[in-house]
Amino acid sequence: MNNGQHQSLAGVTPHLTIGEKRAKEAIDFYKAAFGAEQVMEPHMAEDGERIMHAHLHINGGSLMLNDDFPEYGQAAGKPAAVTLHLHVDDADAWFSRALKAGATETMPLADQFWGDRYGQVTDPFGHRWSIGAPVKQS
């Protein structure tokens, strides 16, 4: 954790809205499933119940998330059609860890024609994650 110091963000950073006041649960899931590390303690809303902003690092990249805030026109119902991709060193290990943490297999992990071992899972909050790594040569 970075004790509240902001780190610069490069490229595109996904920012997820988590419904039903489950952002804390999502943070815990992403730690267990994908080895996420908190960059800082989450910023709480004035109601003391909802997370307004959380910043995580997963596999060298940033992920931001928050609870939904319908009063600001931000609702979380069904997530938008997006897939978050993780390019990792060992797809089998990452895929297995995600399933053990509570993800649901959406596309079985398999060797693909483009040279990656690739599969997809859906997290308990409705977001789809793809996991891929170069096929290991024996």
Question: What this model shows, in words?
Answer:
The chain starts with 14 loop residues before the first strand and ends with a strand. It is elongated and about 55 Å long. It has helices at 23-34, 91-101, and strands spanning 15-18, 37-38, 43-44, 51-58, 61-67, 83-87, 104-111, 116-122, 128-134. Mean pLDDT is 88; it is low at 1-7. The strands form two sheets. Strands 1, 2, 3, 4 and 5 form a five-stranded mixed sheet that branches. Strands 6-9-8-7 form a four-stranded mixed sheet, with helices on one face. The protein is α+β, with helices and mostly antiparallel strands and 138 residues long. Helix 1 packs antiparallel against helix 2. 17% of the residues lie in helices and 36% in strands. The chain has two helices and nine strands; from the N terminus they run βαβββββαβββ. It has two domains: 15-69, Roll (2,3-Dihydroxybiphenyl 1,2-Dioxygenase, domain 1); 83-134, Roll (2,3-Dihydroxybiphenyl 1,2-Dioxygenase, domain 1). A hairpin with a 5-residue loop joins strand 8 and strand 9.
